[in-house]
Design brief:
This protein is an alpha+beta fold and 179 residues long. It folds into two domains: 85 residues; 80 residues, Alpha-Beta Plaits (2-Layer Sandwich). It has six helices and four strands, in the order αααβαββαβα. The C terminus is likely disordered.
Length: 179
């Protein structure tokens, strides 16, 4: 029974440790040094506690090692889920709608998105390319606004490293984390 409880403890600790590590990595990539550093302190503390339980008793038991491995896997899944829920950062949405670009632009502006339109050349002639830079947490709302007008629009979404000026709301609290 003690071995089973030990394996369960290790499993839970690894879920916590790895999910924090996954979120920390996302904040690191986005340049949030202070948040990433603080998460790293918590992550390493939980990791040391978990690994010490695995290595106790001359290398631990196979059940504890399985708890460690499966906890790692579950932690990755949970960490990605948490990071998607937090949805920090900024995205660039590119939209091409050969027949509905004017209505699309108006609909996106009505929804509060900043939109820049540029003329381009597509396979079948001239097109209008819409560029929308938005907070990542607004991704689904922007895509829904696009599909409301043109469900066949060609849409790409990618992360933005830096966005300054324009129709981007400024969040002083978010800027403080980047120092």
């Amino acid at each position: 029974m003690e071995t089973l409880l030990g394996a369960l403890l290790i499993f839970v600790l690894r879920i916590i440790d790895v999910s924090i590590g996954t979120v920390r990595t996302m904040f690191t990539v986005r340049g949030y040094r202070l948040v990433a550093g603080l998460l790293g302190v918590v992550e390493s503390g939980v990791f040391i506690f978990a690994i010490s339980h695995v290595l106790r008793e001359a290398g631990g038991s196979p059940l504890k090692m399985m708890g460690y491995a499966f906890g790692f896997a579950a932690g990755v899944v949970l960490g990605i889920t948490i990071e998607k829920w937090i949805a920090s950062g900024t995205i660039l949405i590119r939209c091409i709608s050969p027949r509905h670009a004017v209505r699309l632009r108006a609909n996106l502006l009505n929804e509060g998105f900043g939109v820049t339109s540029v003329r381009g050349e597509g396979r079948d002639g001239e097109v209008v390319i819409l560029f929308i830079v938005a907070p990542r947490r607004k991704r689904n709302a922007a895509i829904a606004a696009i599909h409301e007008v043109d469900p066949t629009a060609f849409v790409t979404v990618e992360p933005v490293a830096t966005a300054i000026g324009g129709h981007m709301p400024f969040h002083p609290s978010a800027a403080a984390f980047k120092k």
